[in-house]
Amino acid sequence: MFERQAGVGLNFRDDGSGPPVLLIHGVGSDLESWDGVIDALGRSRRYIRFDLRGHGGSRRTPGPYSLDGFASDALALLDHLGVQQVSVVGFSLGGLIAQAIALTAPGRVSHLGLVSTVGGRTAEEQARVEARAETLAQEGALTHLANAVDRWFTPEFVATHPEVLEARREKSMQNDPDCYVAAYRVLAGNDLGDQLDRIRVPTLIMTGEKDIGSSPRMARFMRDQIDGSTLHILPELKHSVLLEAPDQVADILDPFLPKDMP
User: Which candidate, 30, 109, 184, 258, has a CA 20 to 30 Å from the CA of 21?
Assistant: First the structure.
């Protein structure tokens, strides 16, 4: 446990050796969501991951939370570990946090990976995510998760991997309800689309072809804003690509992320 400050303790893992990679999970999840991707990538790098405040094994710090606060948590952890520069890969809310790190501390980021994340939402997309945040706040995680299955997973995966869905549900239900809502409000209340043209590091963007929350349109928008970035649309997949298709995610990340120390 890294004691970030009074009341903020971050559970983290620091595995492997080689070029460091910071992996940031999505809202309501935890650091274990990266297990499949790391297994597929192999051990040629140093993988640093942590549970966002209020998530997983981290302390249940009361909200409200902020995007800057999440980014500062990540940078403080890197300071604690003595890591000056790192590749940052974030999923969903983690991708939004990764954007914030690249914008506020550009010298700390060597490569940026944005997986199933958001930028440049339309008014309709913004209204939908705000409605989801309100459902979570008013009706709780169980209703929110029931509504999310069709957005997160393909029908084929739902039919053949019920154990993955059950594990995801259990993890979400273990979250403190107020912390879950506080984190979801950060996802719903922030969009850095109008700042992305300031990012100058090598950037890889990917999302599922049928992801409506982190849509291909948004991914293309981010690609157009970040000079020199590359885009991968994963055919047929929806939002939860880390759980449904970790091998595909790893196959795209592997040639992008450094394998040798500078």
Answer: 184
Q: Classify the C-alpha dihedral 158-162-163-165 as positive or negative.
A: positive
93 in Cβ contact with 27 (< 8 Å): yes
The residue type of 4 is: R
Q: How confident is the model at residue 173 (pLDDT cuts 50, 70, 90)?
A: confident
Query: Residue 177's pLDDT is what?
Result: 87
Report H helices in the chain.
Answer: 35-41, 67-81, 93-104, 123-139, 141-152, 155-160, 162-174, 177-189, 216-225, 241-244, 246-256
Amino acid, single-letter form, for residue 255? P
Crossing angle of helices 162-174/141-152, nearest 10°? 140
From residue 91, give the alpha-carbon distance in Å to each of 69, 88, 97, 261.
Answer: 17, 10, 9, 24
In angstroms, the CA 105 to CA 136 distance is 32
Rounded CA-CA distance 96/135 in Å is 21
Tell me the pTM: 0.94
User: What is the structure's pLDDT at 251?
Assistant: 96
**pLDDT-based confidence at residue 237 (cuts at 50, 70, 90):** very high
Q: Is the pLDDT of residue 262 over 70?
A: no
The region that residue 213 occupies, defined by phi over 0 for left and psi between -120 and 50 for alpha, beta otherwise, is: alpha
Distance (Å) of CA 3 to CA 54, 55, 74, 80:
13, 15, 12, 10
Q: 64: cis peptide before it, omega within 30°?
A: yes
Would the CA dihedral through 193, 97, 26, 202 be positive or negative?
positive
Q: Is 183 helix (H, G, I), strand (E, B) or coil?
A: helix
H/E stretch holding 23 reads strand 20-24
d(CA 59, CA 38): 25
